[in-house]
C-alpha cells in the first residue's frame, strides 16, 4: 500500500461488537455481491470444472458425439506419452528461466530507477512498461519476423546467421528472450511501487546506523519487498504455466517438440484434434501443478500477509 | 565525489541503453510499416524506409476491413473493462468494509478462482455456450469476463486503505450505502481503478482463443484473431502485417498513457502495505 494509514485509526485490536446495527442499504449491497460472486462462479467456474473433471474420465469428442466412460485411460495414456513429458519439461524450463529473469531484471531496474540520483523517472518507467501493455499476439508476429534468418532484424544487427525459430537448439531460448522482453516491465512497476511504500525513516535510520548500501539492500529493502516478491512470483507462475500464444504464433510447438508447452498441447488436443477428454485430463494435471506451485511459493515467501486486509 | 558522479553517469547510460533495447522492436515495426514489401524482403536492410509509403495501410482496409475489426475490439474492450471495474469495486468494497459471516470464505474462494487455468474451464464453457445458442454473439465474450477474481482482489486490497471515519461521517449525515460507495469510495479508489483498467483492457484486447472459438462471422471478429488469420491468408505480406500490428498496439498505449499517472500507486495496492 502506498498510503500509510494516519495515526488514530482504530487498530484491529479494538473490541468488536458482535451484533452491530446494519447501515442503511448495507444488507441489499451485501446480498447483491454475495449472490453475484456465488452465482457467477457456480455457473461459469464450478460447473465447468466439475464437467471437465468428469469429461477427463471419458472418451469425449463433440464432433461425432462420443462420450464414453473409460476410467483412468486418459491419465494412463498421458503419463506414458513421451510427448507429454517433453512438453512438461519444456514448460518447467521456460517457466523457471523466464520467471527468474523477470524478477531479477525487474528488481535491478526498479532499484536503479528508485535511486536518488536517477532523473527522468517517469520516462524510464513508461519506456520499460511499454512492451507489457502491448498485445502479445501482435508482439509475437513482430519477433517472428525479427528472428527471420534472411530479413530479420536480429541476425542483421548481431551479424549472425542463425535460423532461430527453426533450430531446435535455439527456438525455445529465442521465445524465452522475447517473453522476458515482453514482461519484465510488470516486475519493474510492482517492485517500484513496493520501494515507494518503504517508509523514508527506515532507510534513513539505516544510513545513520552506518549500513553500507549492500547491507541496506540485503537486510532492509529485500525483506520489506518480500510481500511484493510473493505477488510477482505467484502471478508469474500462474501466467507462464498458461502461456500458449507465443508458441501458436511463432513455432507451433516445433521444430520437433522442442518448443511445445503444456497449454499449447491442451489447445491442440482440444480444438485441433477435438480430443476433449484427453485435453481435460492434461488440463487437470496442469491445474494440480499450478495449485501446488502457488501454495509452495506462497509459503516460501510468507504470503499470509496478502490475505490480511491492509488497514 | 568524482566517483559518485561517474557512478551516476554510468547508471543513466545503462538505463538509457536498456531503454533503447526495449523500444527497438517497436521502432523497427512502426518504420517497417511504411516500407514497400520489396524493401522489407530485400537482403539489404536499413532502419529507415528508403521510400516512405502508406500503401500497406490502404491495402489493409481494402483487403481486410481492418477498421471494422479495430472498432469491434475497442467496443468490446471498453465495455468489458467498464463492467469489470464496477463489479470488482463493488465486491471489493463489500468484502473489506462490511463484516458478515462467510466474508473470509468468499474472499479465499475468489483468490482460489485465480489459480484455475483457462485450459480447465474452456472446454465445458465452450460446450455450454454452444448449447444455449450464444455462439457468434458478443454476449458469449462479455458474460464470462464480467467478474474478475484479480479485479476483486485488487480493489479489496486498495479499499482497505479508505479510512472508516470518512464513511462514518457520511453515514451520520444520512448518506445511504449506495451513496457512500458511488460518491466516496469509488472516487477515492481512482489509483486502483486506473491500474485495473490498464490490465483489464489489455487482457480483453489481446484475448485470442475465446473469441476465436466463439465468433464465426468475419465482420464480428476481433483484431487479435484477425491478425492470425491475416498472416495465414497473406503469408508473405509483411508490410501489411507490420501495419496491422502497429495499429493493434496503438489503443492499448493510449489507454496506458491516459491512466499511467495514477497507475504505479494503483499497482501498489495489489500487494500489501510494506
UniProtKB/TrEMBL annotation, chain A:
One of its GO terms (cellular component) is plasma membrane. Keywords: Cell membrane, Membrane, Sugar transport, Transmembrane, Transmembrane helix, Transport. The chain crosses the membrane at residues 29-50, 92-115, 127-146, 170-198, 219-241, 276-301. GO terms for biological process: transmembrane transport. Pfam families: BPD_transp_1. Residues 88-297 form the ABC transmembrane type-1 domain. Residues 1-22 are annotated as: Disordered. It is a multi-pass membrane protein. It is found in: Cell membrane. Belongs to the binding-protein-dependent transport system permease family. This is Permease component of ABC-type sugar transporter.
Automatic annotation (TrEMBL), chain B:
Residues 70-259 form the ABC transmembrane type-1 domain. InterPro entries: MetI-like (IPR000515), MetI-like_sf (IPR035906). Pfam families: BPD_transp_1. Keywords: Cell membrane, Membrane, Sugar transport, Transmembrane, Transmembrane helix, Transport. It comes from the Bacteria. It is a multi-pass membrane protein. The chain crosses the membrane at residues 74-96, 105-126, 138-155, 184-205, 238-259. GO terms for biological process: transmembrane transport. It is found in: Cell membrane. GO terms for cellular component: plasma membrane. CDD domains: TM_PBP2. Belongs to the binding-protein-dependent transport system permease family. This is ABC-type sugar transport system, permease component. It comes from Sanguibacter keddieii (strain ATCC 51767 / DSM 10542 / NCFB 3025 / ST-74).
Amino acid at each position: 500500500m502506498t498510503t500509510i494509514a494516519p495515526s488514530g485509526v482504530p487498530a484491529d485490536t479494538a473490541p468488536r461488537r458482535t451484533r452491530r446495527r446494519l447501515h442503511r442499504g448495507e444488507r441489499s449491497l451485501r446480498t447483491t455481491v454475495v449472490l453475484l460472486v456465488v452465482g457467477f462462479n457456480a455457473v461459469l467456474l464450478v460447473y465447468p470444472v466439475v464437467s471437465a473433471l468428469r469429461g477427463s474420465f471419458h472418451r469425449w469428442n463433440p464432433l461425432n458425439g462420443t462420450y464414453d466412460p473409460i476410467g483412468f485411460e486418459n491419465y494412463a495414456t498421458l503419463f506414458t506419452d513421451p510427448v507429454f513429458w517433453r512438453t512438461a519439461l519444456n514448460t518447467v524450463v521456460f517457466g523457471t528461466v523466464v520467471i527468474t529473469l523477470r524478477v531479477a531484471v525487474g528488481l535491478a531496474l526498479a532499484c536503479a530507477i528508485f535511486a536518488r540520483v536517477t532523473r527522468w523517472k517517469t520516462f524510464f518507467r513508461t519506456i520499460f512498461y511499454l512492451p507489457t501493455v502491448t498485445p502479445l499476439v501482435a508482439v509475437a508476429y513482430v519477433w517472428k519476423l525479427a528472428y527471420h534468418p534472411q530479413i530479420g532484424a536480429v541476425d542483421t544487427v548481431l551479424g549472425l546467421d542463425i535460423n532461430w525459430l527453426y533450430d531446435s537448439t535455439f527456438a525455445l531460448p529465442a521465445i524465452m528472450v522475447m517473453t522476458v522482453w515482453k514482461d519484465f516491465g510488470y516486475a519493474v512497476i510492482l517492485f517500484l511501487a513496493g520501494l515507494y511504500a518503504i517508509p523514508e525513516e527506515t532507510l534513513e535510520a539505516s544510513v545513520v546506523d552506518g549500513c553500507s548500501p549492500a547491507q541496506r539492500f540485503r537486510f532492509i529493502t529485500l525483506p520489506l519487498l518480500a510481500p511484493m516478491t510473493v505477488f510477482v512470483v505467484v502471478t508469474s507462475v500462474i501466467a507462464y504455466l498458461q502461456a500458449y500464444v507465443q508458441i501458436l504464433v511463432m513455432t507451433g510447438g516445433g521444430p520437433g517438440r522442442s518448443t511445445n508447452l503444456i497449454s499449447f498441447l491442451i489447445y491442440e488436443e482440444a480444438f485441433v484434434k477435438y480430443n476433449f477428454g484427453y485435453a481435460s485430463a492434461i488440463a487437470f494435471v496442469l491445474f494440480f501443478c499450478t495449485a501446488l506451485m502457488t501454495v509452495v511459493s506462497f509459503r516460501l515467501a510468507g504470503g499470509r500477509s496478502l490475505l490480511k486486509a491492509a488497514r | 565525489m568524482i566517483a559518485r558522479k561517474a557512478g551516476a553517469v554510468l547508471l543513466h547510460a545503462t538505463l538509457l541503453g536498456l531503454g533503447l533495447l526495449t523500444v527497438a522492436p517497436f521502432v523497427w515495426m512502426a518504420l517497417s510499416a511504411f516500407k514497400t514489401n520489396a524493401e522489407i524482403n530485400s537482403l539489404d536492410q536499413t532502419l529507415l524506409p528508403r521510400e516512405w509509403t502508406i500503401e500497406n495501410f490502404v491495402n489493409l482496409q481494402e483487403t481486410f476491413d481492418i477498421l471494422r475489426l479495430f472498432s469491434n475490439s475497442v467496443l468490446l474492450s471498453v465495455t468489458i473493462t467498464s463492467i469489470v471495474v464496477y463489479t470488482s469495486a463493488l465486491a471489493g468494497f463489500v468484502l473489506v468494509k462490511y463484516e458478515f459471516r462467510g466474508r473470509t470464505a468468499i474472499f479465499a474462494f475468489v483468490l482460489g478462482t485465480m489459480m484455475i487455468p483457462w485450459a480447465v474451464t474452456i472446454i465445458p464453457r465452450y460446450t455450454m455456450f454452444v448449447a444455449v445458442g450464444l455462439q457468434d454473439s458478443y454476449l458469449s465474450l462479455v458474460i464470462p469476463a464480467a467478474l474478475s477474481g484479480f479485479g476483486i482482489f485488487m480493489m479489496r486490497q486498495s479499499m482497505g486503505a479508505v479510512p472508516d471515519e470518512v464513511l462514518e461521517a457520511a453515514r451520520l449525515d444520512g448518506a445511504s450505502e449506495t451513496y457512500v460507495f458511488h460518491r466516496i469510495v469509488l472516487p477515492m479508489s481512482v489509483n486502483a481503478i486506473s491500474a485495473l483498467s490498464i490490465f483489464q483492457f489489455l487482457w480483453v484486447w489481446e484475448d485470442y482463443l475465446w473469441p476465436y472459438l466463439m465468433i464465426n462471422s468475419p465482420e464480428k471478429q476481433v483484431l487479435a484473431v484477425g491478425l492470425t488469420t491475416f498472416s495465414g491468408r497473406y503469408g508473405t505480406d509483411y508490410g501489411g502485417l507490420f501495419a496491422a500490428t502497429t495499429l493493434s498496439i496503438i489503443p492499448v498505449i493510449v489507454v496506458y498513457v491516459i491512466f499511467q499517472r495514477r497507475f504505479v500507486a494503483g499497482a501498489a495496492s495489489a500487494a500489501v502495505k510494506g
